[in-house]
Amino acid sequence: MPHPPEAPAEHIKAHIRAHGPLDVGAYMSLALSHPEYGYYMTRDPLGRGGDFTTAPEISQLFGEVLGAWVADIWIRMGRPERFTLLECGPGRGTLMEDMLRAVRGVEGFHRACAVHLLEISPALKSLQAEKLAPYKPEWHADLAQVPDDLPLIVIANEFLDALPLRQFCRAEAGWAERMVGLGAEGGLEFVLRPAADLLIPAAFKDAPDGTIFEISPAREGFVRGLSALLKRAGGAALLIDYGHAATAPGDTFQALRGHKFVPVLEAPGQADLTSHVDFEALARAAAGMDVFGPAPQGRFLHNIGIAHRARYLMQKAGADQAQEIENGLKRLTDSDQMGELFKIMGLSYGQTFALGGF
Ligand code: SAH
């Protein structure tokens, strides 16, 4: 029997009644990843019938040029006979499928490539299994399970934004943590809990009252784990997401439902909860790695030849299809679309070359 739609909210309220207010990260984890009610655990959130759409779902151009980027790295690594291609949070498997299809002409690449996927959602796993069956992927729930005995190339698109964040708020008496508690009527409401300001960078400690500052130990922990893995295995990673290049205050916690923004506490378990990624914090977490960018997505994709790929496909397409390809190109790269807000950061370890695109 499926749970009624209000089950996740009721579960979260019961949790707060029993244990007190939750920090934003704990709220987000329960809403997104609770094994029974969690948003990602129960559905395919992507595409027209879902709550949000992503670059690979908008246009095949995205996966095709990233496939060429991966093949370029593999060639410059000296074409290792076996390597691991890991995608984190592969959604419907579209990006991986487009990448692999685009480079099937690269001699030896498919034979060398072991496809690994990091995914928690059973619903999305089954879509990935269907789409990627010919490539015999292996799934992991945790970065710690990914093998480190082969060179590694990693792609993560809109993965980090889904990992939990915490929010601090400057109040009259000093900094406080923004928590999810219960209002007088029993509904979910933000409450403040006094907190040490140790996690607030010196430059923002004296910000005006009401200023929100976000941190994400989960994202930084992921990048530390990924860096450690890349140091053991050798290789490179691309982290792609919406966010800011420099650490800055601001409230970016957001909920999307049916392609519309809704209040973040309104429908836990039924809306996608994310926030903007702080790439400066990620770069700090990647200490000891070679870090590239972050570059705005538009510039990166143009640098790796997305316009050429679009022109090539448009020449072979009918008028309607050509228009669709051009629309996709614009959406992915124009600065008032995904071209500026989305950023791409590269990490590498033990390589003699600079990563392409930056
Ligand atoms: N990269 C895809 C999907 C982005 S949605 C695309 O661009 O279309 C976020 C993806 O991350 C989903 O596949 C979701 O199930 C997965 N995910 C979210 N939190 C995760 C976690 N903690 N561990 C592993 N996968 C996670």
What does this structure look like?
The protein has 358 residues and is an alpha/beta fold. It contains 13 helices and 16 strands. The protein has helices at residues 7-19, 24-33, 39-42, 55-58, 60-76, 94-102, 109-112, 122-131, 217-233, 279-285, 297-303, 306-316, 319-333, and strands spanning 22-23, 83-88, 113-118, 138-140, 152-157, 166-171, 174-182, 188-194, 212-215, 235-244, 254-257, 260-262, 272-274, 277-278, 290-296, 342-349. Strands 2, 3, 4, 5, 10, 14, 15 and 16 form an 8-stranded mixed beta sheet that branches. Strands 1, 6, 7, 8 and 9 form a 5-stranded antiparallel beta sheet that branches. It starts with 6 loop residues before the first helix and ends in a 9-residue tail after the last strand. The model has no long low-confidence stretch (mean pLDDT 96). The structure holds S-adenosyl-L-homocysteine (SAH). The site of S-adenosyl-L-homocysteine has 19 residues, from helix 4.
